[in-house]
Amino acid sequence: MLILPLHRPLTRATFPLVTALLIVVNVLVFFGWQGSDEAAMERAQQYYLQSDLGRYEVPAYERHLLDTSQVDALREFERVPESSQPEYVAGSTLTDVAFTTALRSGELFEDPGDFEAWRPLRAEYDAQLEQVFTLRHLLRSSEVDPWRMLSAAFLHGGVMHLVGNMLFLLALGLLVEGAIGSGRFLGVYLLGAAGASAASLLWRWGEAGGGLGASGAVAALMGAFCVVWGRQPVRFFYWIGVVFDYVRAPAIWLLPLWLGWEVWNLLANDHLGIGFDAHAGGIVSGALMGATLVATRQVRDGFIRDPNGGAADDDRWQRAQACLGRMQLIEAEVLLEELAREQPGRFDVRLALYRVARNGQRPQAMARRGAEVLAIESFDAEAVQAQATVLAELDAAGLAPDPTARTALARRWLDAGELEAAEATLMSTGGVDAEEQAQLWFRLALGWRERNGEAHARALRTLLARYPEQPQAKKARFLLVELGG
């Protein structure tokens, strides 16, 4: 089964810099540092066979399997012809931490003389194994090594292994890096790699194997993508058996599908030698990090939404606008509510829902929808003007927000530099905290100072008239004297 999100084209505007750098690093590691591993490994294995290390380690290995009750491994070893056993032990114990630890302790040697003869031979062999870059950095199943938990994510076992992982990294990086930012994306990748390694260690503790590849970190991006993009419809390519096509679905739907596929394979096909355990751990780690980013509002909604205001290939916004034009308010509201659930931060959708309630003459819905529009924080001048219009319409309909909400609006609009809207709101927010009101009026007066002298003086006089006992009133008098008024 192959499911790949292909929702955004790769352009200069959407180019994911950190994703590209990660791909470059993975490629350089494989063709650079790992490029000499085959020759180094062959030299080490030849030394093992020529040095007669097998004479000492073959019986020690059999004793180790008996001591640790590894019945299946013992049966497999016994099926190996005696002449091939040294080569088998050399290959199968490269990442067997428990065996090498027991060897070095001497407990697997009955004759102390054999142990002493073995030690210099093994030291030379270990020195040659140290020349194998991959062996120095891959994850070993029975060892907690923080460095290896990260470094293994930059190693690959072959060209196709590398190409497959980099293809998914590019597709997911294009969508996730743009949605959460480059720094957070790198954090998700590295922490996801560590999370995938931790899951693999938990599942395979006591085994003699190892793991490598970027798939655990890429799986973390898969989990983060599902949660960060949430209910946003996304275009996917899928390939199951002989069936393949494109489909659009909410991103979150892929989380149980991807995770379920990895867990099922882990339970049913663990013998294939694929890191389904790391994949599942990566997906869970990424989903948890994605949920944290969403909860702490560290997601770029503007990137996730289509630049034209809707999801790619999604005509619901256009259909809703057409329904509004024909006064088909119920149909428009259904479409807009779907969009609002999927993209709760979209200002244009909330504004359209307010207009549906207003045009339908439903006061309660109008008040609720209006409050939703006013609650959206925006520093865009056009959006602020639209909010000011909504506020005026609510006032005219007797549905005005309470003074506290109006004060919050005025403060936000002052921050946005929308002084006219802020002043109109402050004019109708009497009866609340006088100190805060005086501060806001003084900020407004200072804001007008460089733009409009008349408005500057007007704000100062209003402050002086409304809050003569506040400290800002003294400053207002001084400024008015300077103005000659």
UniProtKB/TrEMBL annotation:
The chain crosses the membrane at residues 12-33, 153-176, 188-206, 212-229, 236-258, 278-296. Residues 146-294 form the Peptidase S54 rhomboid domain. It comes from the Bacteria. GO terms for biological process: proteolysis. It is a multi-pass membrane protein. Signal peptide: none annotated. InterPro entries: Peptidase_S54_rhomboid_dom, Rhomboid-like_sf, Rhomboid_protease_S54. Pfam families: Rhomboid. Belongs to the peptidase S54 family. This is Rhomboid family intramembrane serine protease. It comes from Novilysobacter erysipheiresistens.
